[in-house]
Amino acid sequence: MSNRTLVTGAPGWLGTRLVEALTGKTTDFANATTIGARPVRVLVLPGFDASPTTALGAEAFEGDIRKPETLTKALEGVDTVFHLAGIIHPQKKIQEVFDINTEGTRNLLNAAIAAGVQRFIFVSSNSPAGCNKNRNVLLTESDPQNPYKAYGRSKAMAEDLVNKANAEGKIKTTIIRPCWFYGPNQPARQSRFFRMIKSGKPIVFGDGKNLRSMSYVDNTVQGLLRAESSSNAIGQTYWIADARPYETNEIYQTVAELLGVKLTPRFIPGIASDICELVDDALQAVGMYSTDFHVAGEMNKDIACSIEKARREIGYEPTIDLREGMRRSIEWCRSHGQEI
Fold this sequence. Notes:
Blueprint: E1 5-8, H1 13-22, E2 40-44, H2 51-54, E3 59-62, H3 72-75, E4 80-83, H4 95-115, E5 119-123, H5 149-167, E6 172-178, E7 180-182, H6 188-198, E8 203-205, E9 211-212, E10 214-216, H7 217-229, E11 236-240, E12 246-247, H8 248-259, E13 266-268, H9 270-285, H10 291-298, H11 308-314, H12 322-335
Parallel strand pairs: 1-2, 1-4, 2-3, 4-5, 5-6, 6-11, 7-10, 8-13
Antiparallel strand pairs: 9-12
């Protein structure tokens, strides 16, 4: 019997790539599992263009995870849900992250249970774990939650809901924690990052030696597929990232080399990032949000994880490293007319 699957967060960056794999249109995922075409549905916000996924053979259903009544039809007869929908940077009000990431997950989870869905795979984030307390000690799944800002709290609360449903035997769940996404189909903020590097004089907060785990999009899809196909993954949480973390200096230098520019970073004392974090905290305390202050406030932090549990339990093995992943990202931007 075919596995009818619903993907939320499509036609987004990661969602579209996952649909390519599930419909058998792409098989470049390091033999993550036997990929064959299956019936795939996507949950798309009303008014959004679903053609990137319907062109792959997916069936589109309009719905909004903030509105439970819009989810029932899409879930009829579904065996597996990949829940990718979420928001990282709200437009202005911080409440959006809780409405979408926490309550939206609650609504979808409840609707999936009511529909008899068997597997629920939730894409979380590094943010529920927060930052490394020690640069030499990588984050692991056994670490207690230490959410970073409101976004981290919204995802941590969603993780708790997912784990509770599994523990109560209502549905079989797995939580995936990817880190800094990158890869083809990237959103505008990633292209902005490339343009900053291309200037040759990007700002680096601190000494640039802080570590960041990154998750190339195809590595992340491999992790999702392996989590779905492994009985070991039921009730578990996995960090899914590239094979190793990278220093900020290495990330910037790699992109600069691929863009053919000489890099002369402007090093700014790390305290400047700390000040941006304080501004971010103040804004969030009154329910407001600024993407620029939030991003600047974490740029001197270590956010680096171990993927050993995923390797050991579900056979996850990332095959794309920073240089190749960034090369593909830049190539995609150029072939799609994005200015970098």
